[in-house]
Specification:
InterPro entries: CbtA_toxin (IPR009610). It comes from Citrobacter freundii. This is Toxin. The chain is mainly α. It has a domain of about 45 residues. The protein is flat and about 35 Å long. The protein starts with a helix and ends in a 13-residue tail after the last helix. The model has no long low-confidence stretch (mean pLDDT about 80).
């Protein structure tokens, strides 16, 4: 709640917790020897909203 009140974005709030607790992502397919970034991006949030049916009709995942 403090992050929301301070105007911090969802991605930044989650990434703060990722860094603080050294979290790793387990949602990506094809783990490889290359290290994958654990940080959340805006496109990750859009994909989650789309998967849950929370995007308005006509809204796409392209970035501007």
């Amino acid at each position: 709640q403090e992050h929301i009140n301070a105007g911090v974005t969802l991605a930044d709030a989650v990434n703060f917790l990722v860094e603080k607790y050294e979290l790793v992502r387990i949602d990506r397919k094809g783990f490889s020897w290359q290290e994958q970034s654990p940080y959340l991006r805006a496109v990750d949030i859009l994909r989650a909203r789309q998967a849950m049916g929370l995007l308005r009709q006509g809204h796409n995942l392209s970035t501007r």
